[in-house]
Every structure is written in C-alpha cells, then in structure tokens.
Amino acid sequence: MSATSPYTIRHLAKGEDVEPVISVLNEAFSQDKFSNLISYHDNEVLGQIQRSQVVAASIAGDIYAAEDINKTVVGAAVWFEPGRTLFDSDDQRASALLPMMTKFSPQLQKWWKEEARESAMLDSWHLQSIGVIPEHQGKSIAKALIQEVQAKVSHQSSP
Questions:
Q1: Following CA atoms 19, 2, 151, 61 in sequence, which dihedral angle do they give, to the nearest 10 degrees?
Q2: CA-CA distance, 14 to 11, in Å (whole number)?
Q3: pLDDT per residue over 102-154, tens digit each?
Q4: Does 84 map to a domain?
Q5: For residues 106 and 26, what is the distance between their CA atoms, to the nearest angstrom?
Q6: Does residue 81 fall inside a structural domain?
C-alpha cells in the first residue's frame, strides 16, 4: 500500500497463527450469496470451508494479511503457487480437507467430492480466497493484497 496508507500487507510465516485470517474471511464472506449457497446458509459450514482453505495454504501455499495501524487483520488472501492446488497433498487433506468434510452433511459431502474439487495442476499463481471485513471494504485493500503477489512474481521472474 502507499506510504500514507494506514494498512500494511504482510506475508504470514509458516507455523504462524492463522486464526485472525480465518476470522476475517468468515466475516468477509458471511453475506456473500455464493458462499451462503454452497454452505446452505450455515455459518459453521462456511467457517469450516474458510478454515480448510487457510490451513491448506499454511501447509502448501501463501497467506497474506492486511493489517491496520493497530496490527489488526482486516483483509486476507490465500494463494497457491504454480503446480500446487488446494488439497493436492496428503498433509493438506489430513489437516484441512478431512476435518472440514466431517462437519458437512452427506449431501454437501457428495457435492464437494463430485463438483467442487479441482483436479488439474495450475500453470500460474492461484488466488484461492480473498476477503476484507465490511467496514474496511472500498479502501483498495484487496487490490493491495493482489499487487503484493504480483510484485513477488515479477521479482522472481526478473533475470
């Protein structure tokens, strides 16, 4: 973000506490129509979906947090680098997918297994989830979360 912005973007280190990120994504998606559709309007199910994505990224992806001047997380983005996808490894499935599936109804488990899973490896960075809590939306935080990874990728591809 700009030098005058009250927000900073930070990459979470492996093993760092992800609960603030999960909370932000839960709040950011609580009124989202698609999220409510796939969770059957059940906040516990929606929370499990967000938790599984963040836990999987803490194992095999990258998590970026937007923090305000008080170091409170107000936005977050969950990314997977080229060649990786959500739940593509045994450790992601054991730590993130299976705990989520145990919370789902049989109908939702069936849908998730048959419709929602990605099977192909991606050739580029994949933004799995991005969200900003409602009172901080419209302040270019999500844009800054995306630009942080764009800058990282640009720097990596430079000779």
A1: 0
A2: 9
A3: 888 888 888 777 776 554 446 788 899 999 999 999 999 999 999 999 998 88
A4: yes
A5: 23
A6: yes
